[in-house]
Amino acid sequence: MTVTAEKIHCVAPYDVVRKMRASVCVLGPLLGRCKEASVALPGGCVIGDRPIDLHLKGFEALGSAVRVEGGDIKVFAPKLRAAQIDMKGNTVRPCSVQTM
Question: Band of the pLDDT at 6, cuts 50, 70, 90?
Fold first, then answer.
């Protein structure tokens, strides 16, 4: 089996991520590959609301412009830069998303 990723779309629309409580997990890889990404806000979770502010602050620290518009998170970064990011409290997911 050969897998190629020559044609990647930098958009993950609501129809694709509506059932994912962690739709922000695709932001890092798309941003790294395409230099921009647009992903629908995370869907529902039985545990309850999960804030994404650490994700967005991390992307900004790495040099991204971040906007939340009409139910979508949009990030743009022609050139990412290294940054020291202080994740307040205990967190796993934002660290892994920023690393990707």
Answer: confident
Can you state the angle between helices 27-34 and 53-61, rounded to 10 degrees?
20
Answering whether pTM is above 0.90, one says no
Using DSSP, state whether 15 is helix, strand or coil: helix
Give me the CATH number covering residue 47.
3.65.10.10
Enclosing domain of residue 33: 11-99
Tokens of 88: 């307040």
Q: Is residue 66 assigned to a domain?
A: yes
> Are 43 and 15 within 8 A, CB to CB?
no
Helix residue ranges per DSSP H, the chain:
14-17, 27-34, 53-61, 93-99
Query: Catalytic residue numbers?
Result: 45
